[in-house]
Write a structure and sequence with these properties.
Largest sheet: 7 strands, mixed
Distance between the termini: 58 Å
CATH architecture of the largest domain: 2-Layer Sandwich
Structural class: alpha+beta
Number of strands: 25
Helix content: 25-40%
Length: 615
Amino acid sequence: EPVRRVLLLGEGNFSFAASLCGAAGTHVVATCYESEEEVSGRGRAAESIRQLRESGAEVVFSVDCTKLKDHFLPEKREFDCIYFNFPHCGRKAGVVKNRELLAHFFHSSAEVLTEEGEVHVALCNGQGGTPADQPRREWHNSWQIVAVAAGAGFILSNVHPFKAETIHGYKCTGYRSQDKSFCVEGALNHIFTRSMPLPYFKPMICEIELENRKVSFQVPQVLVDKINRGFLELNSNHPVRTVKEKLTAELSQAFPLQNIDYCLSLLCQGHLNGVCHSNVFWIILSPEETQSTEEMSNGLANAVLFSHVDFCRDTDKNGWVNAQEGCHISKHYYLRPSLLPYAQAVIQRGAFLPGTLHVLSGPVFRKCLITPYSMPVFHEMVFVCAVNRGAEDSCIQMLLNYIKTSIHSLHQTVSGFKPNLNLQEAMSFETELNDFAAFESQVSKIQYFICMETDTSGSCDKGSYVGIIRTAHYELVSRELVVVFASLNLDLLAMLICGISDWRMLWTSDTRFLRQFPRGELRLFKSFSLYPPSYVHDVSFWVPDGEQFDEVAFHTIARQVSGEMVISIQLIDSFQQPETGRKSLCYRLTFQSCDKALSRQEVAEMQLLFRKEIN
């Protein structure tokens, strides 16, 4: 078994290092900033240094924590763990100086740490500036350790009390650069790990077969990292697939099942059934054999502009795009925004078996505003069943009961209690819907919303609406049959069951996410990025004369340029010039990552790019 190399920095009297020496499978390298002569005079330091050397540990003096690679040969620079207990610039240095020290230290640590290594930083109560500090200092008066570490590519993965009394022989020293102890009551140990770098996604061409011909199209930039991820494939351990499989298994006990996922195309064409055109991703196709990828990418520049950048367009009073724009919308394809039309198509083709529960599932794509539960892509699961006229209510109740049983079982296994799952009639619906439910109510006439309550308050918040149920009469099937449709948002269900607070985490490429769900087992999710820093920027602009502002497209640009790092967009001011009638808007953008280190500089660059794209 490989030996774990541990580096300790800023040791005052080496008592902490001495407590670690002798641990099995660990090689300790203990260092301090001062010379050996300066340190040896401190109480117990000489004894600790002797103990370290006798145990085989290395003791190194005059080590600058901001230039670590200069102190170790290349073959000895790989450390599995770096400890820096109670760093300080010395004497009466303020928070700004100590932030700078930490910033240089983290950059230096990145050069000598293994890929899977950890950096442990112990700080006195309140210094870190995270919610773990009790009491918590004002942000400007803290060391802002998580934001500082993000600048070097680190995320805070754990934080726990620094219990000095449990460390054998440990005695803190160094108060204002003197051989004096300081208060460590309430101190915290912050554990940092490397973040995956912020991705840069090149334009992507997707090749599919459509209407018996091969075609290619440029994937909208905001979806490049989400297309063809294969979450629902057989070899997937993703919790979204597990939820789907558990639901299917439960429903198969009551209904004969038939999966029809294989025939679902990513692209749709034709009437949108009343859906606002600005909510779909428009696509221009090009025959695969006639153009190269580079030529097609260049030729699709206007399509990308139409999809993401042209956020001031002529629309009617309901927000529908004016078809007299010269773009002939009806002839364009668009990424499927729902699977319900496919279910309807199955019925109309006559490939429908009455009494059988037909199941469709797959990702769907929608432009939407940036809110906590609004997803530009998610996995939808649709159930379709035909029953005799007059029996639709009992079918709906049976369908809901089996969905309930499955979700109750999953949620109780994961969190230990049963959530409340109920139907809310659409007719009496007054609560604000999440994006999923609101869109479905446009696609078809909804009769019931499926609400999942995961707390004890007995009320549904916006994120709790996980599905819809409706019925329809199709004479093509039989005058005696009524078709029942149910649609579920698998992503929202997985989030609510596993306690995942941010939908973006479902799409992370960080392996620490799927590691928490071995062999598809559902568990309560524990975030590996705690208290991520957030950054606020404002942007203001004039709305071009005579044009309607398209807020959904505006939000889509923000998603695209930031790589989904914008978590909130709020209108904070508007102004109309009395003389000319010109209107200006001011929006506030909040940037935050759920799984990656995000620095102030990176956000500033995103904001500049955003300003460029909307002008």
